[in-house]
Design goal:
The protein is α+β, with helices and mostly antiparallel strands. It folds into three domains: 22-60 and 247-334, Outer membrane lipoprotein wza domain like (Outer membrane lipoprotein wza fold like, Roll), CATH 3.10.560.10; 67-74 and 163-243, Outer membrane lipoprotein wza fold like, CATH 3.10.560.10; 78-159, wza like fold. The chain contains eleven helices and 16 strands. Residues 73-157 form the Polysaccharide export protein N-terminal domain.
Amino acid sequence: MNRIALGALGATTLLLQACMFSPGMHMDTDRLIAEDSVEASMVEMVQITPKVLAQESVVRPKRQIPQALLDYAPENYRLGPNDALFITVWDHPELTIPGGQQQPSSANARVVRDDGTLFYPFIGNVKVAGLTQEELRKLISERLARYIEQPQVDVNILEYNSQKVTLSGAFNNPGFRAINSQPLTLLQAIGEAGIDQSRADLSRLQILRDGQIYTLDYDYLTGHPSAVGNIYLKDGDKLHFGLNDARKIFVMGEVPSPTALAYSTSRMTLSEVLATVGGPSPTTSSGREVYVIRGVENLETDKATVFQLNAQSPSAFILADQFEMQPQDVVFVGAAGITRWNRFISQLLPSATLVGTTARAGSDYNDFSNDN
């Protein structure tokens, strides 16, 4: 959420302070905001019910893999600049190991130049970039046949250096990954690099390919049956895991451990949030006053929403387990008896530095720089 959204959230809290928590008042869930007040047009109070959960699930974005990623099928490896080759001409050691038997294979490697050419005795400079191993083997065999009777040629790749993918963001080992003769899948590349679980936003993995950015919910796709294992990477692909610094759930009020929780997965429920902070305080909290405050970017055109859960209801645990949070939601647990809004404000204001830091952190979803 950007600064505008956070500003709107702050404005929402102040509006709620003015209209809901005047001295002597408590959170009346049946009539939270006077119907004739100006603020009523800016804030909407919603009781969490099975019907509301159904409506929320309808608007939830689908977690699908773009067909363009699935359509790419890797072909045989094609040579390119900086690839190191070991070319064998049977019965002709002077061509195979010009440095002598004592030298290792790497010392007799032939490296493709930056312009895609390779020099080989008798046949001179050969354009090899774009050729497969078999195509280069045939080419050398045909040209050597002018000087050697029925030459037997073999071509092996010692080092794959021309085709690479780049990994940046919340990886344990970001950087380049070479593509070799074995097709490289998305899951293989991520597995080799390793995910920094504490920093990664697992719901937003980005792939930059041919100028197009594709966003995947990696957490969901790897946790449910999907075709994510069929995604192959191609030369020049860039993978980026954004950081979860700007995705928080703020929990305050009558809970044992008020805090800001990192929202690093594709799904976090209200029950998970409450369980993480130790649940509502059994001695000071009100079972009827569990709220989720959800801001908007523009209060002039959209209403901020305050969802209310009656934790005294037998179905409360079921509802809380099905209610999906959104980044930057504020969970507030009210106190038993008369709850005053200034109690909420007194806990919110010390968190202003935290909220401001989150706003300044911003979103790096479209930044493919190495932000280790």
